[in-house]
Amino acid sequence: MSQLTIYPETAGEPIAVLRTHEEIARELGRIGVLFERWTADRELEATATPDEVIEAYREPIDRLMQKYGFQSVDVVSMHPEHPQKDALRDKFLHEHTHSDFEVRFFVDGEGLFYIRKDGKVYATLCTRGDLISVPANTTHWFDMGPRPTFKAIRLFTTPEGWVANFTGDKIADRFPRLENTAG
Which of 44, 47, 124, 166 has a C-alpha 20 to 30 A away from that of 12? Predict the structure, then answer.
């Protein structure tokens, strides 16, 4: 189940915990983050290749590509036995920005986006069927957990995709990780 937990930037107790899609979308919309509920109903094998995932969701992908001018798409897929899971988790647990907005549609599993804006941290647990779009140049980080399980379609406005610009701030260390978040 999707969840939005809002913390003061200094960490500590949450200011609010929201669990309905409407509440989450409305609150994230106030800071310019798009949060939509899609239908993740395509039958995919656990071993589905990125091309098979993209083909299964071709129609909504094409619609988004046309609407927002995306030029490329890929699929990020993580599982508990992935050989680089620890290194990738560590990398994206560091606060960063990118010059392009980040769009992910979770076709399976879950992941936790932390978005830092206006003195608050918005911890958004995304699950199957959630689409999130983080605006360009917005400070954020992502936690896939110690046993990552997700497949997400990513869309980019450049053929090369975005590049993370790390801020060097250790803010992520002050907040609960995915495994400590009640979903």
Answer: 166
